[in-house]
Design goal:
single chain; 7-stranded parallel β-sheet
Length: 809
């Protein structure tokens, strides 16, 4: 069997399409044709050709030196005349006269195809699913299927995500597909059996790193036999795919080759210093060590040593692995480069924090400017990641049009959250979704960033914990620690998940990183509006300027997402009135574990045994103990109700920043009980032992504790402002009271207490309706079906007794 790399570029290719190379002024390739020839032969290629863009000069020179095993080829940039969509067509074994004709005809791909077919020229459509100038659609792919019979089935510069789906579609074609497409587009197929496609393989190498590692295989002993096999679709493809890291290193290599030809600043840059020791085979010289050691890039007295240590660690590692294969060296290079990039950004963020606190604007600008080398290092990785994930939606659309199964019916989902350790309602929702997805075999993964020691013990295996390089707390939210994930290390891990959708349960640094990842991976981004931080900030701080700042940020964040999900219709209306885009909002369903949260007959005994509540009705609040939950309003309500119901008790369950002060203030109030944090397994006992659930908060977008109370058969009084009002059924499972209107709250709560006393049968009926309301309307299985887009097998998380605790609030 003969092999040939049928897609290779030399220094005769110019005008790079990659942004990074355009920015620094580099050419597309600096590899000498003779180097390509020698390397291809060393890697087992029987035949060698060059496919420079719209140029055969290098291929002619190569054939002149090696006429027996080379042939003249090129990569022609062709255009659909109707919209100027670019397509690259590889043509093989052409004469100089044919080359000149192709140069004239390639402005119209239909004329070019007819000429290629008439001349019997071997050809292949290069990286068919890649949109060269951003105009490629599924319509263009359908036309290409008709216009040509041979396609690049393995492009070494593209990922598995690009190559396999495209080849799968082409391999699944039938005569009826071709007939239908021909009738629809009015294009004559290339041959009478155009549903049978031939495939070629090539490295698409531009930097001299991977040529010959992806290739075309055919039964041939001469160049003519090989070209005949191409024309007659008797070839196969084999070799390596590219991932974004290796494609980025290709860009680094081209930039390095460019820097060697320059005497300007780039040749003395951090990029050049490092890449010199990646791509050159000689060992690291003492001069190079000293030069790198004394580099002034982003040098600060307090931080220079840490950066120096990272540089020297990278160079030592590269020096030790000098004889290892290039792929192994690049893996090590990536990991060390990720650490260097993190160090740049850590110093930047630390400096910015200090500059902002001091109001030092000149210092702020200097530090941002000093961080540019770190940003410069990451750009090729981000740009190649985005590059490789473009076009996957086009392939999905095409497969759907042709009714060709893509091999996987389930959506792959990443779900970003930074609240797993805080055990609030958001945390419990995300963990429940994680468990049900895991037990149901769904491809949903929770993404967080926190120390391993702080991870809750009740997490399922489908968790990715990203490393972080910087953390901070916000004023008035000191108990929340926000972490900035390591950019390159995290992107590498998440890209391997190949997500279709990314859910963002946080607008913090992790949420921003999730937005970046969704953009790079071409995945749909869905923001989940769990918490109204604007109202929360207003209740906690009472600073109008801060309220406006928080609101502006939230609008900006949610405007960047493709879709926003909100827990209730009530809150969709609220957000629309505040200027959020309603067209992007959908309902985010919540569920309840109706097995865990069920009425318990021992509730009254539990309250008596734990806190000595032996007589009188019990009002219950559960949630975070802080100003935004309107706790002071609740205590004043209790004070006003006490004369009417002398044996009334108030139980406040949960933890929070205001708990110590309130416990001290009401220490002598025997009928006011602060439980503090409650274990997850005892909450149903507390709900079952209470008589009325009182939830005066107006900042909650949903109110998970209200649903838990309802599931345990506890009637509730909630605010007429916010999400909880949609959980209850007015006059059936509870009541709504006017926000902050003490008289109305007093009347509504008292009416339920009176109902309990004077009409016990009606009150018991209401408790039964609470349970039916929760179980019937809030089903977790339905929630998972909506998220994953498919049916699931029923499953429940491990028993709550397995050391799980949950802090209400």
């Amino acid at each position: 069997m003969a092999k040939a790399d049928l897609h290779v570029h030399s220094r005769y290719s110019s005008h790079p399409s990659e942004w990074f190379l355009q920015r620094i002024g580099a050419s597309e390739s600096y590899t000498d044709p003779e180097v390509i020839y020698r390397t291809a032969k060393e890697r087992g290629m029987q035949f060698v050709t060059l496919t420079d863009h719209n140029c055969i000069e290098g291929a002619l020179a190569l054939r002149e030196r090696h006429p027996e095993d080379t042939f003249v080829s090129m990569e022609a940039t062709a255009y659909f005349p109707e919209d100027r969509c670019k397509v690259h067509v590889l043509v093989y074994g052409v004469t100089e006269a044919q080359y000149r004709e192709i140069q004239m005809l390639r402005t119209n791909i239909y004329d070019l195809r007819d000429y290629i077919r008439a001349q019997g020229i071997a050809c292949s459509v290069a990286h068919g699913s890649y949109s060269v100038n951003g105009k490629l659609t599924s319509d263009h792919l359908e036309k290409l299927i008709l216009l040509f019979d041979v396609f690049e089935g393995l492009n070494g510069a593209r990922s598995r995500l690009n190559n396999r789906p495209w080849k799968h579609i082409l391999s699944s074609l039938t005569p009826s597909h071709i007939e239908r497409l021909a009738n629809h587009h009015g294009i004559e197929p290339f041959s009478h059996d155009s549903w049978i496609k031939g495939f070629t393989g090539g490295s698409d190498d531009h930097a001299g790193l991977f040529m010959g590692k992806s290739c075309t295989v055919a039964e041939a002993s001469t160049v003519d036999e090989f070209l005949s096999a191409l024309r007659n679709r008797r070839t196969t493809c084999e070799g390596r795919y590219s991932e974004f890291q290796s494609l980025a290193f290709t860009i680094y290599k081209i930039a390095y080759d460019f820097s060697k030809s320059q005497s300007g600043s780039l040749s003395r840059s951090l990029l050049s210093q490092i890449t010199e020791n990646v791509f050159e085979s000689n060992r690291l010289s003492i001069r190079s060590r000293f030069k790198l050691k004394t580099m002034n890039t982003f040098r600060r007295k307090k931080s220079g040593s840490s950066l120096d240590a990272r540089y020297m660690e990278l160079l030592q590692d590269l020096s030790d692995g000098r004889n290892a294969p290039i792929e192994d060296r690049l893996d090590s290079f990536y990991d060390k480069l990720a650490a260097i990039s993190d160090e740049f950004f850590r110093i930047l963020l630390s400096s910015l924090e200090g500059d902002l606190n001091r109001g030092d604007i000149p210092g702020l600008i200097r530090n941002i400017s000093s961080s540019l080398p770190g940003i410069f290092l990451t750009v090729p990785f981000f740009s190649t990641l985005k590059h490789l994930h473009e076009g996957k939606d086009t392939l999905k659309t095409l497969a759907g049009r042709l009714n060709i199964e893509n091999g996987s019916s389930s959506k792959r989902i990443l779900w970003f959250t930074d609240t797993l350790s805080y055990m609030n309602g958001v945390s419990m929702t995300v963990k429940k979704i994680a468990w049900l997805s895991y037990l149901g075999g769904k491809d949903l993964t929770i993404v967080t960033s926190m120390p391993e020691s702080e991870l809750p013990p009740d997490l399922p295996p489908n968790i990715i914990n990203l490393p972080s390089f910087f953390e901070f707390s916000l004023p008035h939210y000191e108990h929340y620690t926000l972490r900035v994930p390591s950019f390159l290390a995290s992107v590498k891990r998440l890209a391997a998940c190949e997500p279709d959708e990314i859910y963002l349960s946080t607008p913090g640094p992790l949420g921003l990183f999730g937005l970046l990842v969704s953009n790079l991976l071409n995945a749909k981004s869905i923001g989940v509006f769990h918490t109204d931080f604007t109202l929360q900030a207003h209740e906690l701080i009472e600073d109008g300027a801060l309220d406006s700042l928080v609101e502006s940020y939230l609008k900006w964040f949610h405007a960047l997402t493709d879709e926003n999900q909100v827990p209730t219709e009530e809150y969709i209306d609220i957000l629309q009135a505040r200027g959020f885009n309603r067209d992007k909002m959908k309902l985010f369903r919540r569920g309840i574990d109706s097995f865990q949260f069920a009425p318990r007959s021992t509730g009254k005994e539990y309250l008596r045994d734990q806190w000595g509540i032996s007589d009188g009705p019990v009002l219950l609040f559960a949630g975070r103990i802080s100003r935004d939950k309107n706790i002071q309003f609740l205590l004043e309500l209790f004070r006003r109700l006490s004369p009417k119901v002398p044996d009334l008790n108030l139980v406040i369950a949960g933890d929070g920043p205001d708990l110590p002060e309130l416990q001290k203030k009401y220490a002598r109030e025997k009928r006011i009980v602060f439980t503090g944090r409650l274990g997850h397994d005892v909450l149903p006992e507390v709900y079952s032992g209470a008589d009325v659930f009182v939830f005066p908060s107006s900042t909650d977008t949903f109110g998970m504790v209200v649903l838990e109370a309802q599931s345990c058969g506890l009637p509730a009084v909630v605010s007429d402002r916010g999400g909880p009002r949609e959980i209850i059924r007015e006059d059936n499972t509870g009541l709504t009271a006017r926000d902050s209107d003490l008289s109305d709250w007093e009347e509504k709560v008292f009416s339920l207490l009176k109902l309990r006393e004077t009409s016990p049968e009606e009150y018991r009926r209401m408790r039964g309706e609470c349970r039916r309301n929760a179980v019937g309307r809030f089903d977790w299985n339905m929630v998972i079906d909506l998220i994953t887009g498919e049916t699931r097998q029923h499953g429940n998380p491990p028993d709550a007794g397995q050391a799980r605790e949950r802090e209400v609030g």
